[in-house]
Structure formats: structure tokens, C-alpha cells
Amino acid sequence: MSTDPSPHDGADVVIAGGGPNGLMLACELSLAGVRPVVLERLTGRAEENRANGLVGQVVQVLDRRGLHERLTGSAQPPRPVPGFVFGALPLDLSAVEDNPLYTLGVPQRRVEQALEERATELGAEIRRGHELTGLSQDAQGVTAEIAGPGGPYRLRARYLVGADGGRSLTRKLSGIGFPGVTRDDTVSRSAHVSVPESLIDPATGGLDVPGYGVVPPFMHHRTEHGLIAYGPFPGRTPILTTMEWGGAGESEPAPMSLDELRKSVRRVLGVDLPFGPPEGEGPHLLRLLTGGNTRLADRFRAGRVLLVGDAAHVHSAIGGPGLNLGLQDTVNLGWKLAAVVRGQASEELLDTYESERRPAAERVVMHTQAQSALIAPGAETTALRELFAELLREPGNARHIAATMAGSDLRYDMGGADAHPLTGRFAPDLVIEADGGPVRLAELARTARPLLLDFTGDAAAAKEASGRHDRVHVVTGRCSGGSHGVSALLVRPDGYVAWASSAPEPDEAELGSLRAALTRWFGPAA
Ligand SMILES: Cc1cc2nc3c(=O)[nH]c(=O)nc-3n(C[C@H](O)[C@H](O)[C@H](O)COP(=O)(O)OP(=O)(O)OC[C@H]3O[C@@H](n4cnc5c(N)ncnc54)[C@H](O)[C@@H]3O)c2cc1C
Q1: How confident is the model at residue 7 (pLDDT cuts 50, 70, 90)?
Q2: Quick check: keyword Repressor in the entry (predicted)?
Q3: Is residue 69 part of a domain?
Q4: pLDDT band at residue 379 under the 50/70/90 scheme
Q5: What is the four-CA torsion angle of 380, 384, 387, 392, rounded to 10 degrees?
Q6: 443 or 253: whose pLDDT is higher?
Q7: Same domain for 337 and 285
Q8: Is residue 243 packed enough to be buried (19+ CB in 10 Å), middle (13-18) or exposed (0-12)?
Q9: Domain span holding position 124
Q10: Ligand 1 and 169: CB distance under 6 A
Q11: What is the mean pLDDT of the chain?
């Protein structure tokens, strides 16, 4: 076995897996000035059709890296959605104040393409056709064993991050357990289809099924026999999905056929739905999934090895929480790992990755399991749904569910004495009147540097950043509208508020807690 055959003699960080989370981490590390190498065993982008879109705070996170604009082709900031779905129940958010739920209807393949382009622009090295096969670590670093196109080789790095999906070899090789539950009593079938125009319900855009009634679009629709979902995504081939329980549906030999899906629709709705094969260019989806896993890694870090995304947690895809969780893992870890690699922080900073992100994963496990319970068959479930639907009609409850799905209900422990209501929360997208005109916080965040925003008259908070101008971007000005009553705030690169004040002139105690927050998160002044 040779050592690294590349022109480099090693890497700061090796990322195993070039899926969305590995690629996003590569972007974050590169922005923070460290050199990642991404190992991806596939030679081309995965053909598999997974996420149809992103749901939650991640949409705002992408805006804070300029990726929302790249994916939508528009500089318009993201806006919350007026309604969504929870456990196949409609979630009306039109009357919800400060609605926290954002969505982005872009398929996973496009997200991965945009992330790969961005990572490459930022100088990350992506090695396709290179598979991690083994690893060992010592006090100085990690040695990755790799099967590459030219044969096996080794690569040294300071740290290795497993972004290698739910079956993560990194996790297994690091002796990290993956406890949880596996269920095998569900069968889900999905396919791209074409639907005759005469079946489209003009009022909703859903399906007007003869002999049954309307199946609304973009919603899991539950009957006593299973679930059906119709997704007529604009500009894309419509997707039809069914889900049945109790090992239902004499699965035919793989690959699944459209006829098998037709039979499943008939069992769920009790009538035939005359759909046809998909039109237009493929690849076309034809997927049968049996059962599912809900599992959480028992540690997110073993020494110099860390896990992100599906390698750390798997759960039902209901409500589309996967990329919201995984991409925010990477944005939480990226700047911390970079600071440790650059020698600007101790390894203790890495402990906050797990203490902050494990609760996020636990919330997703909780709400996907709750949604799975709400869609199951049975009279008791029907009764539970009725009660739940009543509760969801109350805007306060709808907001609670929306914040849970968004992941915006989390408040990180920032460790200081500062009890400002924004501290520990994801920073709102304030508009700042600075020298160059109005600018959104999301635009200031694109370089992924910590931000110290000071709207006070004497810029007392800004002065505390002296000796850290290499690390902290200081902006003084005025906050125009929607200021959340804040006069100064320190925002970490992941968008979370590490310190905030509402005082027109922060006193010495507040400035002291700002100094402590600067040191805790970004190291001592030079
Ligand atoms: C049917 C389905 C529908 C979904 N719908 C949604 C949705 O609507 N919204 C949403 O947000 N999420 C959704 N998800 C979840 C989302 O797809 C995952 O959370 C996401 O793909 C996880 O990304 P990842 O980068 O962690 O892992 P993966 O996407 O699994 O990527 C891991 C990568 O690592 C590579 N790899 C593995 N082992 C090695 C190795 N040893 N060496 C090198 N490379 C390796 C793999 O080839 C792969 O490219 C869905 C998932 C499924 C299955």
C-alpha cells in the first residue's frame, strides 16, 4: 500500500462521503481556511431520487451562505410557507405570528450539484471513485485507508469526519454504537408517473379520483387502508407514493413495476387510479422501501473522528427533516473544527458540537416517530388524529409544531451570564443600515466569519473586538425595522447568537460577558 498518491502530502481534514452533508462540510471548512479532502466512492453523482425539498431553518442557513440564491436563481430572501403538513394533517400557518417554517422545493440532486460546485470553487479537493476502507488514529492525527482508482493508499489528516450515510463505515470502524429501532411492517412504493389532465382537480391541483374524491397535492392522505401522496412539483415529473402497513402488498420481484403501484393505490383508495408511465427525460423514480430505521449514534465523536448527517442519525423521511438536521450539523461543526485545526481553539470546543446537535437529532427522532404514529391505520389512530387536528387549529399549537419541524425551537447553552432572549437562538435576519447602504444579516454572514453587530451610539461593543479583527467581522450602523429590540449582538458562523444586549449603552457587566463570549467561542485576543 502506498501513501497518498496526490500532490498533497496530507489534509487538514478528511471527509468520508461526498453526499450533501460531506460537501456542505467541505464548503464550511474551506470558508474557514482549512484544507479538506472529500473521499466519495461513487465516480459520478448518485442517481437515486431522495429529498424532494428542504424543510426548516436550513433554508435560512443556505441563504446565509449565498446558496439559496444559487438554488432558486433569485436574490429574494426566503419567505415562510403559509401551510404545511404534519402526520398527514394540514398545518395552517396563515394566522401564525412570526411563522418559523421555511421550505425550498429543490430536489436533492440539485442541492448536491450546487454544493459540489461551491466546494470546488472554494478549493476543496473532491476525490471521486475513492472509498474509505479503514482508519486508525493516534495522538497527532488519523490515517485513512483508501481504495482509489489507482489502487489502495493511505492519507494522513488531523481529523476525519464520517459523512458516509446511514450505513457509515466510519461509525463502525470507530466503535460507535447505533442504537434505536428497526420496523419491518411498512411498505412504501414511489414512482414518477403521468396523470391524465381530466383527473387534475382545478381547485387544489390534486387528483380527483373517480369513485373516491379528491386526493390533495403535496400531502400525505390517509385512509383506513394506508397512505397516498401525490407530488406535482412544478417543472418536474409528478411523484405518486403509497404506504401500507402489516407487510401489505404481495411485493413482486424487484424492480418494482408501475402495475404493483397501481394495485397498491387500489388497496389504499378502494378504486382504480388510471395513471400512466412518466413522460420526459429520466432517470425516473421507481422505488420500493420496506420498513425503516430510527437510530442515533451513541457518540458523535471518538477522538479525532466525528460523524455528521445520516452517519450520526437516521429516522423516517416523513415531513422531510433529514437535510435540515444534517446540513445544520455540518454548519455547527465546520467553524469549530477549523478553529481547532488552526490552533485557535482547544478540543473542548468540539464537545459543544455534540452537546448542541444531539438535542436537535433527538427532536427529529421524536417528531418523526410521532408523525409515524399519526399516519398508522386503526380506529384509535383515527380518534387521535381528530383530537390532534382540533389542537392544530389553534395558532399557538400550529406555531409550536412549525418550530419543532423547523428546528428553530432549539436554544443552545452559550454558557455565559447573559440572559438576553436572543442569546442561544438562531439570529433573526436583521437589516442593517451600514456605510454601504442597507444590508441583511444573511448577506453579511456569507463569508462564514463571526459577526459583531453594534447599533449603539458609541460603538462600545465593537471596541471589544480589538485584537480579534482577523477572526471577527465587526459592523457598526443602525438596525432598520424589526430590530427585535437588540442594540448589539455577537453571531457565531452557524448563525446562532452568542451574546446580545438591548441597552442603548451596554454597561461594564454586559461588556464583560461579551468579552467572555468572544474568548469562549473565538479565542483570546491577539
Ligand atoms: C426516500 C427518502 C426520501 C427523503 N426525503 C427527504 C426530504 O424530502 N427532505 C430531506 O431533507 N431529506 C430527505 N431524505 C433524507 C436525506 O436524503 C438524507 O438525510 C441525506 O441524503 C443524508 O445525507 P448524507 O450526506 O449524510 O448521506 P448520504 O446522502 O447517504 O451520502 C453519503 C455518501 O457517502 C458515500 N460513501 C458511503 N460510504 C463511503 C465510503 N466508505 N467511502 C467513501 N464514500 C462513501 C456514499 O456513496 C454517499 O455519496 C430522504 C431520504 C430518503 C431515503
Answers
A1: very low
A2: no
A3: no
A4: very high
A5: -160
A6: 443
A7: no
A8: buried
A9: 11-52+107-178+297-372
A10: yes
A11: 94
